[in-house]
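**Folding the chain**
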Amino acid sequence: MTSRHITRHAAPWFWRILRKEYHWTVKPIPGPHPIDRCIPLGIILRDYLKYAKTMREARMILGEGKIKVDGRIRRDYKFPVGLMDVIEIVPTGEYFRVMPHPVKFLDLLPISKDEAGFKLCRIENKTTVKGGHIQLNLHDGKNHLIKVSNPRNPEEDVYKTYDTIKVSIPDQELLDHFRFEKGKYAIIIGGNNVGRVGRIKEVIQVFKKSRAIVSLETDTGEELRTIMDYVFVIGNEKPEVSVFEVK
């Protein structure tokens, strides 16, 4: 039987919670992000934004429909919020995006209302569905359907694994497409260089694509190396989203 709770010592290290205050903490429900790459919505309200002193207060705020994630009201305090998700505090008009941080791994970055109107999603894989249409399976658990006029010659299928698409919130309309190729801006989402941003300089693949070695060059000329699975394209000539500054 799967436990409905998790101990504070077993919780992901980047959660901003007091480890010795209580024995248990909130366990995220199954959803768009895995437990090691998400933060429960209740913990965000209580421990990150300080809008509640207790989880009981956080649940009351959520129950009143005052919090939106990716443009949709979320009332479950266990809802998992993860990479690139947009949080809106309806009464205050504040917007935050969950972004990779060089020290904190994942953290909330304040953004403008205009930037809160879209989201970047990485293509994890794609499948062919009924009618020959292409279904893009994204990093946040969502899918996006690409209609194909001729299944025998799918000219619309220009999307590849690890490419990034820009979608509107909450309509999920396709706004742009960023290919995973040299010269594109990308952010590192895991490993020792998490949160660092640079242009893709070189990709060396020997065996599995996800383990290919990717070299990135920062604006200051520093070279970073990581695996392809940790690289998230965020723009062509410039980053499409705000990022944390590296000090």
Observations:
- The first helix runs from residue 41 to 48.
- Residues 117 and 148 are 27 Å apart (CA to CA).
- The mean pLDDT is 92.
